[in-house]
């Protein structure tokens, strides 16, 4: 009986420690871009999208929530950002080169998007999202339930750029 209890307690201990395990993931969105690394819970499935000039990676969890790193012009959270209003959406997705060119003709005509810009909120289906724009890269999460939000915020706070 002591052996059965010991085995049972060992299995409980191992299952608890496995759920809390984080895995370091790395991704280079563009050939010339820096490498991004995050620490994520290990139950994800990876889906990659790419074109000649852009790459995107989703780390999808069983509940359909996901973390993403993307060099695409349009973020996976575009609909959520658009729901914040046209002015915010236009600012977040501005054509930076065009804005710079306009500002050379008429100074300060268009306010330029800073190198780092963060938006977050709750989607129409009451799930949390966050989009962080760093340089030309979007990093964030989408479709996260309230009870998982702190964990996903920790994932993003583990971001390192090399």
Q: Helical percent range?
A: 25-40%
Number of domains: 1
Q: In this structure, how is the largest beta sheet organized?
A: 6 strands, antiparallel
Alpha carbon gap, first and last residue: 53 Å
Number of H/I helices: 5
Indicate the proportion of strand residues: 25-35%
Radius of gyration, taken over Cα atoms and rounded to an integer in Å: 20 Å
The count of β-strands is 9
Give the spatial strand order of the biggest sheet.
Answer: 3-4-5-8-7-6
What spatial form do the alpha-carbon principal axes imply?
globular
Low-pLDDT stretches are 1-19
Which secondary-structure class do the elements indicate?
Answer: alpha+beta
Mean pLDDT: 85
Order of helices and strands: HEEEEEHHHEEEHE
Features:
162 residues, alpha+beta, 6-stranded antiparallel sheet, 3-stranded antiparallel sheet, Lipoprotein
How would you describe this structure to a colleague?
It comes from Bacteroides sedimenti. The chain is of the alpha+beta class and 162 residues long. The protein has one domain. 31% of the residues lie in helices and 33% in strands. It has 5 helices and 9 strands. The strands form 2 sheets. The protein has a 6-stranded antiparallel beta sheet, covered by helices on one side. The longest helix is centred in the first third of the chain and has 18 residues. The N and C termini lie far apart (53 Å).
Lay out the secondary structure.
Blueprint: H1 2-19, E1 22-27, E2 36-41, E3 45-50, E4 55-60, E5 66-70, H2 78-83, H3 86-92, H4 96-105, E6 116-122, E7 128-134, E8 137-144, H5 149-157, E9 160-161
Antiparallel strand pairs: 1-2, 2-9, 3-4, 4-5, 5-8, 6-7, 7-8
């Amino acid at each position: 009986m002591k052996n059965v209890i010991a085995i049972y307690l060992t299995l409980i201990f191992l299952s608890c420690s496995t759920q809390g395990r984080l895995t370091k993931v790395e991704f280079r969105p563009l050939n010339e871009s820096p490498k991004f690394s995050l620490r994520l819970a290990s139950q994800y499935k990876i889906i990659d999208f790419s074109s000649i000039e852009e790459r995107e990676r989703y780390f999808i969890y069983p509940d359909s929530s996901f973390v993403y790193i993307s060099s695409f012009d349009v973020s996976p959270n575009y609909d959520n950002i658009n729901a914040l209003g046209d002015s915010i959406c236009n600012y977040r997705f501005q054509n930076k080169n065009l804005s710079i060119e306009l500002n050379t003709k008429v100074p300060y005509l268009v306010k330029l998007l800073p190198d780092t810009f963060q938006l977050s909120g709750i989607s129409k289906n009451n799930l949390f999202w966050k989009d962080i724009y760093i340089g030309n890269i979007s990093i964030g999460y989408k479709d996260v339930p309230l009870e998982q939000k702190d964990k996903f915020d920790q994932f993003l706070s583990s971001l390192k750029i090399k």
